[in-house]
Specification:
The protein has helices spanning about 5-15, 35-45, 70-90, 95-105, 110-125, 130-150, 150-165, 170-185, 195-225, 240-250, 265-275, 280-290, 300-315, 325-330, 335-365, 380-390, 395-400, 405-420, 505-520, 535-545, 555-560, 570-580, 585-605, 615-625, 640-645, 655-670, 680-690, 695-705, 710-720, and strands at about 225-230, 260, 420-425, 435-445, 450-455, 465-470, 485-490. The protein is mainly α and about 725 residues long. Strand 4 (about 435-445) and strand 5 form a beta hairpin.
């Protein structure tokens, strides 16, 4: 069993993450294996169970996949992998790395391929018939994972290899893999007694069902709850491009002659920024922030309480004080206290900045005749007015220069300059939707590195947000296997023949997710379980967050921020405005994020009582001093990161942790006085982007930077007062 297979199996049933993509290895429980006849039949008839064929080392058979293929393919894959595990444990030879760990890496190939495609359908093609399969298979996949993790004969062999890892001639990477496999098994309950294993298994199956339903409920509210604009007056303040996009969204919903604001972040935020209709801003905002919270069949609050309770019980069985302690142990932070300490160091400065921002906005609102205090649905609208007033910078002034296609070219340019990776479109590769395009990636010598799939547009049955997936991990222990990665977004498609114009925040998100893709494409390891983005949660965001910095590099804007009508490059004066305003609204952005991170950690530290989601949110935010003019970025009823799977549970703090690294990492380029300095870029690739999980992440960062990162660079980047002493992170 490849360690990564277990990661994907459980997480895919409940959607992976929206800013990164691989959930961590969960604990799970015994399930009946698929019947041999089913497995044999599936192998003959099911395209999902066949090795991938075609160019580039084989590609996913997206064009031949049907929903009815998934169940039998998953069952066939599970049966095949269980048979492989049985061969490993039945081997009469003493356990070695070669006959145990390497054989585990080889096992599960079929299931891994099926799971990757299954994950695509879960996040991007989640039709009603697929959701039924998901509901049925989620607990079965959880049970299958535990059937392996709780196999005492297998664990005995793993333990034997682990104990001799330093004296058996293993390479450093092989020693790391032996440690990782053993650690994951222990953390999942391999050393528990039979009664505890049984209960952990029951919990995992129930959690798989609950997190799957949670994700489907959120998707249902995004698909079926949206705001219809009935008349032209409802469009006041919106750009022509936004009006056209909302008209196109209405056509898709068969509401010709009207306009629809889809219930996704990429549509809601620009509406809240530019609409002059306060009544409609409130309506759109309320629809968005109440996803999963309508007291109906898709309400998620009861599921949240049960998920938190079951996670707390599982943590206790596994020997941890709380779910937060269990999750954070396997991270750079190591303890919830360290993660909380970082967040609470930043929180006061961020809240103070929000107070300043609100005061500025209230003055503008008063001049315009609004007597009411700034409300959450006013924040983006008036922040844009303040930005215009303070920095003479208007989002509508930027958008004509931010074309989706040109920004994609900009990302390719940065990848070439930093990492010598070059992208070119390819035809004839199967895709799962006509919106998807495929690119081959080569290095400077012309060697094939991998494929990159791009799925940029919102549509029904696709979850909102943005994320990266790996369809295949780079490896070479049984021959060179190139990676296949994807980036996914939810931009509103423009009218035919018109460019898609996006905001600055969305452009940063594109670069962020592309950073995850580059993390996968730069991977240079032997074993797939250690490949690419298969790293601890608070390190996986470093490559993505550091790449965001290159969006605003002058050379990038000069070449690719071109006016969609004239083709003229963004004027230097406008670029200077962006630079001057770079710290604008950091209070809002930081508090919005930190509120979600603190709520996540605090909820997963509760062990002595049930958590009522609504009451907990109200009480905790009040105690923190949450500004009433805003809400946290992800309210609990739609917080997919932490309730759509285990992936980011008690781990949403990781974006801030990684940003302390990414801010410090980019300062290395500033110190070199060249954002594309070849020596710094080579170190970044060698020690951060290419090593996967073959070395401890703290050691990897020190190898790149020559030291640990403190909080100073983060505070400087956000324009917050620096701490008196910039203590280096442990």
């Amino acid at each position: 069993m490849r360690a990564i297979s277990l990661c994907i199996l459980i997480g895919m049933a409940a959607t992976a993450c929206h800013e990164a993509a691989k959930p961590d290895t969960p604990a799970a429980a015994p399930a009946p294996a698929a019947q041999p006849s089913t497995a044999t039949e599936a192998k003959v008839e099911n395209p999902l169970t066949q090795p991938w064929t075609g160019p580039f080392g084989g590609v996913p058979p997206f064009d031949r996949v049907k929903v009815e293929h998934f169940k039998s393919a998953l069952e066939a894959g599970m049966a095949e992998q269980l048979a492989a595990i049985e061969r490993i444990v039945a081997n009469p030879e003493p356990p070695t790395f070669q006959n145990t760990i390497r054989e585990m890496e080889r096992s599960g190939r079929t299931l891994d391929r099926v799971a990757r495609v299954y994950g695509v359908w879960s996040s991007a093609m989640s039709t009603e018939d697929f959701q039924k399969v998901e509901q049925e298979m989620a607990p079965k996949l959880a049970a299958f994972a535990d059937q392996i993790v709780q196999n005492p004969r297998l664990f005995a062999r793993i333990e034997a290899v682990y104990e001799k890892r330093g004296s058996s001639g293993l390479t450093p990477e092989e020693q790391r893999l032996a440690w990782l496999v053993r650690t994951n098994f222990v953390r999942a309950g391999a050393k528990l007694d039979e009664a505890a294993k049984k209960r952990v298994a029951e919990i995992n199956q129930r959690l798989a069902t609950l997190t799957t339903q949670f994700s489907q409920n959120v998707l249902g509210d995004e698909n079926e709850r949206f705001t219809v604009l009935e008349k032209a007056e409802d469009l006041a303040g919106l750009s022509d491009a936004l009006k056209a996009a909302f008209a196109a969204a209405a056509e898709e919903k068969k509401l010709s002659g009207k306009w629809v604001v889809p219930n996704t972040r990429s549509a809601v935020e620009p509406f809240l920024t530019f609409s002059t209709r306060r009544d409609l801003r409130k309506k759109v905002w309320e629809e968005f922030v109440t996803r999963g919270d309508h007291g109906d069949a898709r309400d998620n609050k009861a599921a949240i309480a049960e998920i938190l309770s079951l996670r707390a019980e599982r943590a206790k069985l596994l020997g941890y004080p709380s779910h937060a302690h269990w999750r954070v142990e396997d991270s750079m932070a190591k303890t919830p206290e360290a993660a909380m300490d970082l967040m609470l160091k930043v929180w006061p400065a961020a809240v103070a900045r929000v107070r300043e921002e609100v005061a500025d906005m209230q003055k503008v609102a008063a001049r315009e005749g609004q007597k009411d205090p700034i409300a959450p649905w006013d924040y983006r609208y008036y922040q844009e007015k303040v930005r215009k007033e303070k920095y003479d910078l208007d989002e509508n002034e930027l958008k004509p220069y931010l074309q989706l296609d040109k920004l994609r070219e900009a990302m390719f340019f940065v990848a070439g300059k930093l990492f010598d990776l070059h992208f070119s479109p390819v035809e004839g590769v199967p895709v799962y939707h006509p919106d998807v395009t495929v690119y081959e990636v080569k290095d400077g010598a012309g060697k094939h590195v991998g494929l990159w799939y791009f799925d940029p547009y919102a549509r029904p049955n696709k979850q909102s947000g943005a994320w990266m997936n790996a369809y295949r991990d780079q490896e070479r222990f049984d021959g060179e296997i190139p990676t296949i990665v994807s980036n996914n977004a939810n931009f509103v498609k423009a009218a035919p023949g018109q460019p898609v114009l996006i905001g600055w925040d969305d452009a940063e998100t594109m670069f962020h997710e592309f950073g995850h893709a580059l993390h996968g494409l730069c991977s240079n390891v032997t074993y797939p379980s250690l490949s690419g983005t298969s790293v601890v949660r608070d390190f996986v965001e470093l490559p993505s967050q550091v790449l965001e910095h290159w969006l605003s590099v002058p050379e990038v804007l000069e070449k690719f921020a071109l006016h969609h009508q004239t083709g003229a490059p963004m004027p230097e004066a406008l670029r200077k405005k962006i630079e001057r305003a770079s710290r604008f609204n950091q209070g809002f952005a930081t508090v919005e994020y930190l509120a979600s991170g603190l709520m996540d950690m605090k909820a997963h530290l509760v062990t002595d009582r049930p958590v009522d989601a609504a009451a907990f949110e109200k009480e905790t935010l009040s105690a923190l001093g949450m500004p009433r003019e805003m809400v946290m970025r992800h309210r609990f009823p739609h917080f997919l990161h932490i309730f759509g799977g285990d992936g980011y549970s008690a781990g949403y703090y990781s974006y801030l942790w990684a940003d302390t690294l990414s801010a410090d990492a980019f300062e290395a380029f500033l110190e070199a006085k060249n954002p594309f300095d070849p020596e710094v870029a080579a170190r970044l690739k060698k020690h951060v982007f290419s090593v996967g999980n073959t070395v401890d992440p703290a050691e990897a960062y020190r190898a790149f930077r020559g030291r640990d990162a403190g909080i100073g660079a983060l505070m400087r980047e956000r324009g917050f007062p620096e701490p008196k002493t910039d203590a280096k992170k442990k």
